[in-house]
Amino acid sequence: MEKVIINPKRLEWCLDSLGIDISILSEDLRIGQRTLETAMEGEPAFTMKQLGRIAKYFNKSMLFFINQRDVEEEKILSPQFRTINNKRPLHSRKLRKLVEIVESHRKIYLELLKDIEERYKDDWYPYDLELDTGDLEITAERIRSWLNIPEEINFKELRKLVESKEIIVIVSNGFNGVWQIDKRSPVRGFSLYFDSLPVIVIKKQTDGAQAFTLFHELAHLLLHKNSVMDYEEDYQSNTGLEKEANELTGNILIPYSYLLKIDTGLLITMESNEIDDYLDEYSRKWCVSNEAILVRLIQNKEIEYPFYSAYRNFKEYLFRRSLENKKQQTIPRTYRHREPLNIFGKSYVMTVLEAFHNQHITLAKASSFLDNLKIKDVHKLEKHVIQL
To answer: Quick one: DSSP state of residue 197?
Structure first.
């Protein structure tokens, strides 16, 4: 079988960009290390099938590796990717790959929207809101009004309100794959700033935690106009830009008028194991966590920190105990056809299906744009969307 010669510098660049070496690539793709070493020496080494697997692994075309010119790094790495990587180098191969495919996903969505001209806007930023970091409470009120957030809302509805402002929201898949932020990863979310169609990516969690992540990343886009990768610790930060994002998020999701509905005199008489029963009614309505409510009460000097700290210690104890008792279970993917809705949101899915029905793209393209659904699942998805 005829072997292909690649440009070794391009493979070397891809390895460096993910922070891995040949041995890891060999193990991940099950291609012999000696075969990879031969390719790096500029000799014919790969079958077309092997080259295809390598191209898919690095999210590149096969022609990318055959091209004999040097890599023009400024053209390959976007400003958004470089901004994130410069602040916190992405040593995780999976995370680097996720940022790349998110950017590719945005380009696909942008082209689809341009095909449907009446739905395309080239600037999303609400300059008329006059957002002021000096008064985050007023800024939060303006953002709530801009999004038209009602008092009772769930995460899906909050997501739709943000997406309606020409912002892409992606929620990490619960299943292992390219769209998953690993449960063990400290990364909780990230945002990529663009003049049109910025992107927010959220780690799959409970609805309250997802809502806080969504608005924390939105705060970065609105206040700081920058691309940011946020770790779990950033959502507890009391310094710098992260503090601003956290305080603004708290004021958006739980404005002061909400706090007045809570009987703090009664609350502070409760034991840690009683707090959830009391606060659940409010957290469900506002799509927040009970902990977020307690943090807002501390900020407004309604409760003391030791009261909150005792509650956190109790919750951490319960969490550790649940991990000890948890058994590994394989979750059946009965509703595989619905996964693109959960990951990409209804707006994107509807855009892909509309582009297909208007013959802008083929059914095969639609399938690839919808997380590589099988054709039968694309049709199931169509039926499900119609019923929503």
So the answer is: S
Low-confidence stretches of the chain (pLDDT < 50) are none
The closest alpha carbon to 208, from 106, 292, 304, belongs to 292
Is 113 part of a structural domain of the chain? yes
Using the Cα atoms of residue 279, residue 282, residue 288 and residue 294 in order, give the sign of their dihedral: negative
> What is the domain count for the chain?
4
- Residues 224 and 264 grouped into a single domain: no
Question: Strands, E, within 81-178: which ranges?
Answer: 168-171
pLDDT in tens, 196-217: 999 999 999 999 999 999 999 9
Rg (C-alpha) for the chain, rounded Å, is: 23
CA distance 363 to 357: 9
Q: Please report whether residue 81 resides in a domain.
A: no
Per the structure, the complete domain to which residue 354 belongs is given by: 336-387
Question: Residue 285 has which token pair?
Answer: 């309505």
Q: Are residue 127 and residue 242 in the same domain, yes or no?
A: yes
Nearest one of 99, 325, 288, 312 to 211, comparing CA atoms:
288
Residue 267 one-letter amino acid:
L
Instruction: Enter the pTM of the model.
Output: 0.83
> Which residues are CB-contacts of 187 (< 8 A; sequence separation ≥ 6)?
95, 181, 203, 229, 230, 231, 232
Which region holds residue 271: left if phi is over 0, alpha if psi is between -120 and 50, else beta?
beta
Three-class SS of 227-252: CEEEEHHHHHCCCHHHHHHHHHHHHH
* Same-domain check for residues 165 and 233: yes
